[in-house]
Amino acid sequence: MHLPGVPSDELPQVLATGVTDVRKIFLSMSAREPSGRDAEYLEWHSLDHRVEQYRVAGLRHSIRLISTPECRAARAVSEPRFDAVDHVMTYFFTENAALEQFNALSAALGGERRPFRLPSVFAGYLNLVGKVAARRAIAGADVVPWRPSLGVYLIVEEGTQSPAAFADVDGVAGVWWHAGGEPPIAGLATNAGIQVAYCFLDDDPVKVAALLRPVLRQRWTSGQSVPLLAAPFYTLVPFEWERFLP
Q1: Strand pairing of 194-201 and 172-179?
Q2: Contact, 103 vs 186, CB < 8 A?
Q3: I want to staple 229 with a disulfide (CB 3.0 to 4.6 A). Which of 26, 31, 82, 137 is the partner?
């Protein structure tokens, strides 16, 4: 779809009205539920746990992603550390968000309200490093995560090479990327050296994965980035909890 008009990032009068104050994300990556109760978990998390998080000061946005067997087959890289990932949950926070409250609320929503947990693969905070929007998206880089998407192509790497060029690939509306480091609250391990890029997609994730594969292959030949996971995911559709499950 080709929208009319000048992209927001080229209109100073639009940019002057405000920019995003998101500075951190909390990324949680999980495997499938061993007994096949993924849909039950997604229903609970979407209708109870996830929405309750908006009580926390500084939470701006959240996205839940799911991998299908077709998504798995389309992965460009899947190192053993991340190979089990099929669920991805991301929360977007301001710099001064009440992260202690975020942890406290998660604990308070446990007990009878939490049926079970998905097997955790990776969890941690990362800092926003850069953002870019495709010109054809019209909407600016500051608001791309809020633009409706069919999914995300997620790239986890060691290194700091900019992934901005991915916004030139058909189906990619924009890219945000984030760097690990020392955790902002106690009790979490460092994830320094890790960079995570979100390519927000307005075309089918499996289709876009094929277009990204040669771009990624060329990127990694330089040795500036070491790929750990490069995979397409679908965005969860509310009330269609089984839609992207095997």
Answers
A1: antiparallel
A2: no
A3: 82
Q: What is the pLDDT of residue 115?
A: 84
Structure token digits, residue 74: 């389309």
Q: How far is CA 5 from the centre of its chain?
A: 28
Burial 170-207 (b: 16+ CB within 10 A, else e): ebbbbbbbbbbeebbeeeeeebeebbbbbbbbbbebbe
**100 token code pair:** 């202690």
Q: 75: Cβ–Cβ under 8 A, 6 or more apart, which residues?
A: 209, 229, 230, 231, 232
CA angle centred on 47, ends 147 and 31, rounded to 5°: 80
**Are the C-beta atoms of residues 234 and 205 closer than 8 Å to each other?**
yes
Spans in the chain with pLDDT lower than 50: none
Residue-level length of the chain: 246
Query: 36 by DSSP, 3-state: which?
Result: coil
Q: Containing H/E element for 226?
A: strand 226-235
Give the separation between CA 172 and CA 185, rounded to whole angstroms. Answer: 33
